[in-house]
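DM from R.C. (forwarded with permission)

"hey, sorry to bug you on a friday — could you get me a structure for this? deadline for the figure draft is monday and I only need the backbone to look sensible"
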Amino acid sequence: MFKKILIANRGEIACRVIKTARKMGIATVAIFSDADREALHVKLADEAVHVGAAPSSESYLVITKIIDAVRATGADAVHPGYGFLSENAHFAEALKAEGVTFIGPPGVAIEAMGDKITSKKIAASAGVSTVPGHMGLIDDANAAVKIANSIGYPVMIKASAGGGGKGMRIAWNDAEAREGFQSSRNEAKSSFGDDRIFIEKFVTQPRHIEIQVLGDQHGNLIYLGERECSIQRRNQKVIEEAPSPFLDDATRRSMGEQAVALAQAVGYFSAGTVEFIVDGDRNFYFLEMNTRLQVEHPVTELITGIDLVGEMIRVAASEKLRLSQRDVKLNGWAMEARLYAEDPYRSFLPSTGRLTRYRPPQEGRRDDGTVVRNDTGVFEGGAISIHYDPMIAKLCTWAPDRAMAVAAMGLALDDFEVEGIGHNLPFLSAVMDRPRFQGGHLTTAFIAEEYPDGFSGVVPSQEQARKLAAVAAFIDLAVQRRSMQISGNLADRRCSAGKDRVVTLSGFVFPVHIETEDSGIVVTFAGETSAAVASDWLPGQQHAHFAVDGTPLGVKTSRSGSGWRLRWRGMDVVANVRNPRVAELARLMPVKLPSDTSKMLLCPMPGIITSIAVREGDHIEVGQALATIEAMKMENVLRADRRSVVKRVATAKGASLAVDELIMEFE
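My reply, with the result:
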């Protein structure tokens, strides 16, 4: 067995590998860039080596620097994680030449499967069902349009060396094919150093389901069930689960056997994933094979009990698999929600900054038998950099069945505290409560169909608003009690036993009467309905558990003017608790209107301007490209939403802008 493993990666996956290596008694070496000097993976590893500047092209992607780190530390194996060099055959061969073990598949398999065009040809030869498409290289946008027409719209434009949703576009017509080709090519070159593009038929109403395979160097190959990864935005997975709520046993077995056949065709060993698109009739088509550990591997671990990182290490050390196909049993249900540093209220655009508060839910088994797991690479006070993927953590839950796993995820998300940056926690919470998601009716178009106008938060129903109003009443009374304890005013203390208040939130007005009890308070609403509220909340707490008529609520709380900001299940409301006379006067107060920015193009995310498509004085049309901004290796084209004339261009190509910084003004 290995004595020391260098992890050629960063963030949560580096921390994940360190965790297993430590259990196996293996020392670890972290590498880090200038931006990651204080990163969590650096603190957790036994040793750490600096490998360059913040851009990954000058650090994590430089093979010679990583080889130097291997030599300097005496590591006898390297785990690549995912992304960066994990699917780089040259890296695997360079390590082999150094006499260092690459914890992953053989270089020939990486090379064959890493090229999407070659992999589809091999898959077809191995009897694996494939999507119709053009597997040859495409020279320019005109050729892309011609090919798209021959296949028939809609088509998927994809980078041959792509992954993680980068270098991918869906085109429904010639204009989108032309533009999508160029954007995919630019992203592919920026992210992978390889701008080759291919086109295939886009399957409508598709589900994205993948098979986890595991093989050793002695010819043994098995599959470990499937993962449903259909909840995506911009082709980036957001929520995954295992098993899939859609597959039957026969389809699962057929997909698994084809995945193993493909792996055998390239002499595969180690952990790998074969991805499929599945239509509504359970017909499935090969997409690609990822010759590495997947981001979503924890859900497979939770339902199989198999440590995939540990198995990768054992396989790399030439050990035989310790189980056969008949030993693989799928137990219960697991969910994974990816917490990203992106603002769901701004079309999920990336967010950067410092984590002023980072409090994940407690990991481990809960009283109800469910399990919570959180894979992360950040800490409170750490920074989210513009240079890397915006994922903060992967929150996972396990339960005996899907309904319980979804419910457990909802509660865990309620307990997850993140402040200082934009993040998608509200969106993840909202998805858990969508009837379509709870019913397992998923496609890769789920987000676009459920939120056609974008995500703007969850508007509470009257019943939900009542619960939050009861919580606000509890908080307001607790603050008053604290004030009375400090002032020692006994008269005020005596009259606090029964109180009439008016709670306003999200357009609702609730006249209430509050009575105290030993276990909490009882809030009586107009119409004689009441709610019993109990909690351990104390003034100053930013999160607490409440029980409203026995229903648990994990609510994030903070002051907002004279009221209270309450966040729960994707809802973000300000609740004001006033005595009736003050409430009457408050209704007369004017509402402050937001500033008019309709004649400005503001930067929607922190990023770098890669092009300005117009000049001062230009007449522009609806939908016309105005500028392109790159953030976290993704290109975003900013378009005009109305006809106008460009009055002033306030920035230039190459400029680094912050959120809401001015790009241009219009007349």
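R.C.: lifesaver. The radius of gyration is 27 Å.
me: no worries. Residues 462-586 form a domain with the Glycoprotein, Type 4 Pilin fold (CATH 3.30.700.30).
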